[in-house]
Amino acid sequence: xxxxxxxxxxxxxxxxxxxxxxxxxxxxxxxxxxxxxxxxxxxxxxxxxxxxxxxxxxxxxxxxxxxxxxxxxxxxxxxxxxxxxxxxxxxxxxxxxxxxxxxxxxxxxxxxxx
Amino acid sequence: xxxxxxxxxxxxxxxxxxxxxxxxxxxxxxxxxxxxxxxxxxxxxxxxxxxxxxxxxxxxxxxxxxxxxxxxxxxxxxxxxxxxxxxxxxxxxxxxxxxxxxxxxxxxxxxxxx
Lengths: 114, 114
Prior knowledge:
The complex is a heterodimer.
Chain A: E1 5-7, E2 10-13, E3 19-24, E4 31-37, E5 44-50, E6 53-57, E7 64-68, E8 74-78, E9 87-94, E10 104-105, E11 109-113
Parallel strand pairs in A: 2-11
Antiparallel strand pairs in A: 1-3, 3-8, 4-5, 4-9, 5-6, 7-8, 9-10, 9-11
Chain B: E1 3-5, E2 10-14, E3 19-21, E4 24-26, E5 32-39, E6 46-52, E7 60-61, E8 64-69, E9 74-79, E10 88-96, E11 102-104, E12 108-113
Parallel strand pairs in B: 2-12
Antiparallel strand pairs in B: 1-4, 3-9, 5-6, 5-10, 7-8, 8-9, 10-11, 10-12
């Protein structure tokens, strides 16, 4: 079992550009959450996807959008990048039939905006 | 919104000794869950221990135990017989009983001295 995988591992973008990050959940998991972890901070909840719908959203602007595919994988899109978007982006997955605390995190994507 | 505070940015402990990491939180809810997560240099967040607010008994997982003081809104983590592999960032997190969002503190960096 590969666990939660994220791609790419690192990327560098320029202010104003758009970026897409990808997450493949652990086998058997159908719920995906995204978090932003700025340097020296704890993760902040961006949103959660289940059955291809955004189920809950944290306090993030509309520049942050997502998508979940029929195979449960997910994408996080960020438009009009700002320097402040530089962070580690974490994906977490769990099975809807499992306890919510049994969520598994991926290793993250380190985004640097210059 | 709920807030989670970790007032110890860094802690150190001698190998085989005991260390306690502090966490306080603010909420108006009566039912919720609290967690400690570990984030090693590999960046992958791992659940260490959880506590349901309705349970008076403090949770224990092998060398890890918590001191949950609901009235004081305090949730500390005790690591006994510290091992080199315990070195990591530790995050305290809160989740309400009904929501999907986790709220994380800013973390405590734990160093284990051989």
